[in-house]
Prior knowledge:
The protein is an alpha+beta fold.
Amino acid sequence: MRTRILRPVRALAFLLALNFLLPLSAAAMQAQSPDALASRVDGAYRVGAFSLSFANNGLRIGHAAEPARILWASVPGRAFLGAAQGQADIRQFGTPDGSYRIDDKLLAQCLAQSIDAIDNATDTLVVRGRLRGPGCDVAYRLAFDVAGGNQLRFRLQLEGPQAAQLNRSYLRHASSADERYFGLGQQLTWFDQKGKTIPVLVQEHGVGRGLPGFTQLFDLLEGGGGGSEVSTGAPAPHYLSSKLNSLFLENTEYSIFDFQHPERVEIKLFTSALTGRILYGRTPLELIREYTAYTGRMPPLPDWVGRGAIVSVQGGTDEANKKLDTFERAGIPLAGLWIQDWSGVRITNAGKQLWWNWELDESYYPRWDALVDRLARLGARMLVYINPFLSTEAGHDSLYQQARQAGYLVKRQDGTPYLIRNTNFDAALVDLSNPEARTWIKNVIKNELLGHTRASGWMADFGEALPFDAVLADGNDPAAWHNRYPEEWAAVNREAMMEAGREGDVIAFHRSGFTRSPGQGTLFWLGDQLQTWDGYDGIRTAIVGMLSGGVSGYSLLHSDTGGYNAFGLTVLGRQVPVIARNKELWMRWVELNAFTGVLRTHEGLNPAISWQVDSDAETLAHFARMSKIFRALGFYRQGLMQQAADSGAPLVRHPFLEFPSDQNTYALRYQYMLGSDFMVAPVVTRGAQAVRLYLPAGTWIDLWTGRPFDAGSGAWTEVAAPFGKPAVFYKAGSAAGARLVTALRLEGFY
């Protein structure tokens, strides 16, 4: 009997001991974890309307307007800050030389974090602690304050003797398997970045961007530059999630956003001084409003841009006039003629390229003024081209010589101009960190583009190629300036317009960009798409890029109609297309762009093998029809552009922005909304004459048939999409939809 009594007593004692020891063991294991968080301080604090709760070895951030909602949270028991010492091997390559490979060797990592003290004596909440790891121990100061509106700013600063050695910082936070992440600038392949790792680095977006077979061949033949699914010329360290969480970094240094883990997000920044903001908003559009309050917002385009198409023409004055004759006969409403070869052409291994000496080539374009006058009589404008490079070849180097002698160029370590390879020639890059150089290039824009050529717009190309080992006039680190360069390139163009008294009447369209580019630019385009149907670098990426970019403040985005990059082989003296747009692809791309902010064509890299607007009579008629539809939408776009200027809301919107509670919208990539009234699903599949699209809750009206479709709480449907009638629906009761129908009826479309 006695032993029977002792056994339960011993068992009870064992269980009590186990209950006591397990938490200690768990705590010990957690303390041994390389990224453990140990907090000596618990408590709840207010910073403006934001609440910060430190408890259970974690941090949660909320907002007084919705106390139960979590805007940001650390992973329980895990560090949310980290630091490291890294040594980056950076290789710049490509055709042109604007692609990058960065391999980072970590020499020391401080991944464990302690919270030792919290000071809220002022409007700024200061958290102090240490970051530790093998051979690494550094104090940190993390400050939170309200940066205006519903924006909680955080600033990380390392302190102490080891701080100067550390040049990487980490920010980690909790997520959930069903949370989706959007934005990150102009991402071209995926709208939802969950499961991806996104390098936030301005670079050439590539040729093929991972298109199987082609990209590998391009890399082999051209020494790299094919790009990948995540390479882009206009990224942004910013996201907006399906749970309406939103965060961005103010830093311009290279960063990596890692969304691969289902339960957490990690941001790695290539500097130790990390600064960012957590945003509060009840809807996606409210969060975009908050974000663009920092980035700046894009102004409405001039009225003339909406009068019709901007058509690309090359080849000299006589060729331009012949094209104009053709466009007039076809009844194409023209907003402008875009002549990119106004400064003359050279023959390179990529075909015809321009002389980057920004002066009118009057031997190639005689009687230029008469051509501009003719356009004016047609109610159209002249547009040209510029980039921040300068030609170095004798006979075409007058601007280069001026800039070199004045010290206006980006330099190498030895003080000589840093010449950057583009196809088979070198070019110098204007140093925009130098105030005098900025004034000089602005004068080139004012005197040559706005003055001599009488242009009302231009493509402001490139901006991705500032080398990481360059020397800048202001002494700043080129690693911090690399992503900033596109912002400054946009600012220089905008300042030239303002100084000439032409702001609001002139446009510049850029392809490179970073966080604050929307506040400086007037218009952006999505770079050099391949003339294909695919989702790596073809027509489909034009849609995804507008949708992602729109989340990150790029409210006015468009693409080259038909794409740009085309390649052929010379066989028996004639060019045979290998990759080049045909009639079908060109016509479908026109349909897509007619329902965006700008309708602009491009003859492409190799015009001889690419289908053109005037390749046959049917194509001309199709283009005239879609240009008239674009013109008919002008009233609606004007309202959307004013909304964009006021709130940052993009013209082309992912359906999630209007229907955030509809989870069926999250995975959509190839359909979009124009404003809040129209749903557009272009044909992006070769040979297709119908489209399957998703319509969110409500009743929608087919633009071409007038038939209503009751989507209930959201439904998929398939509709016919013959040429000239892409799948377009508008909300039942929409005044804009009714007005567009009336306008199209007057054009004889019904």
